[in-house]
Amino acid sequence: MKLSDLLMQEKLSLSFEVFPPKTDMAFDSVKHATEEIAKLSPSFMSVTYGAGGGTSKYTLEIAKNIKEAYGVPTLAHLTCVSSTRDTVKRKIEQIKEAGIDNIMALRGDLTPELAASDRNDWDYRHAIDLIHDIKNSGYDFCIGAACYPEIHPESENQREDIKYLKEKVDAGCSFLTTQMFFDNNLLYNFLYKIREAGITVPIIPGVMPITNANQVERAIKLSGSFMPQRFKSLVDKFGHSPDAMKQAGIAYATDQIIDLFANGIKNVHVYSMNKPDVAAKIQNNLSDILN
Ligand code: FAD
Is the CB of 107 under 6 A from ligand 1? Predict the structure, then answer.
């Protein structure tokens, strides 16, 4: 199923992101975790391409299994920055062969080596180059791309970031998923600005439940997200107790999601970090809201 069709539905829904295993040995446990999340029947599941510490080699295997065994629509992430056109062409073909209809087209993060290398030698400089290749592949994929309510860290300013975002959408994106954020007002401001810039495709807010104190630093480093005082107080108070922090983090994410739904968002994407219990608790907290 194409996510462009799904996102047109009026019903409120949750989707979950999972990541592939970091090592071959971890494959079975990650597969099991993703299956437990699929059993929650989310609106769709996305499988990252190497992000979150996983390798890219199992993205398709995990996505195909979720779709075929549990009937959950899947979104396969694909990055391009360190790839050749031939490699990407083959990856696109493999996604088609796996029966997956949706691709999240990403540039990928720049390693220090990549950032220092000569960009004239690169086949892909930005996600838009990948979007063009998927569009020209001859296959009819539904394409999504990333967006950043708090600006991409490499951008000079938000106006420039939104200008390039509009170009990605015009190149053929049917939806955009956001980087994590912890203050919904940042999303609402961003939505106002992108709508004003003429970006009309559905925006899927990405919400990350922070369930242990160590995750906080990593999340800020990864996303550059602003941590509201309300969230910092919660970590200060409960961070030392794993169970209490988990409960508080789930409650905070639930609260964020309820506010998003109350303000017109129809689908929220939860960065599940491959934790079925966290995904299930958030979904249970919203059971009457989602019905
Ligand atoms: P781009 O759209 O290329 O943007 C990168 C920077 O370049 C921005 O500053 C932008 O303003 C600027 N820019 C864009 N187009 C142009 C242009 N034409 N000319 C000049 N400047 C331009 N990483 C992974 O490795 N695997 C994943 O699975 C993964 N999933 C993600 C999912 C989501 C929802 C998000 C938000 C991020 C994800 N990432 C993933 C991280 C992502 O790869 C990084 O954030 C990366 O640094 C940027 O990717 P992008 O696709 O947004 O890049």
Answer: yes
